[in-house]
Amino acid sequence: MFNNGNLSNLMQQAQKMKENMKNIQKEIKSIEVVGESGAGLVKITLTGSHNCKKIEIDSTLFKDEDKEVIEDLTVAAFNDAVRKISEEHKKRMLKLSGKIPIPNDLKLPT
Torsion-angle region of residue 55: left (phi > 0), alpha (psi -120 to 50) or beta? Predict the structure, then answer.
């Protein structure tokens, strides 16, 4: 089934893919995305490692009776940013894998 040449080639390809996955991990950690809600009234900036870097809330929202609205919009913006990180991860992994779907919960080597 496999001769030594095929097995060696397969091992080299696996090693190269592992290195590429490490590079993608580094790229993803360095990117930033901005999640928005309320037509841009609330914005949250996250890093690729899902760390919140910045929250911006438009000053027009600051009234006592709007507290719950601000909190809900903040949660929605945060979730939007997390979704964008996941989409970026999928895009880059598909590019690496040659269109072979890779599970979202796949733990990449660190």
Answer: beta
Domain count, the chain: 1
Q: How many CB atoms lie within 10 A of CB 62?
A: 10
pLDDT in tens, the chain (110 residues): 556 678 888 888 888 888 888 888 888 888 999 999 999 999 999 888 787 888 888 888 887 777 778 878 888 998 898 889 888 888 888 887 775 655 655 555 54
* Residue 24 belongs to a domain: no
Strands 42-47 and 52-57, bridge-based pairing? antiparallel
Q: Which domain holds residue 47?
A: 33-110
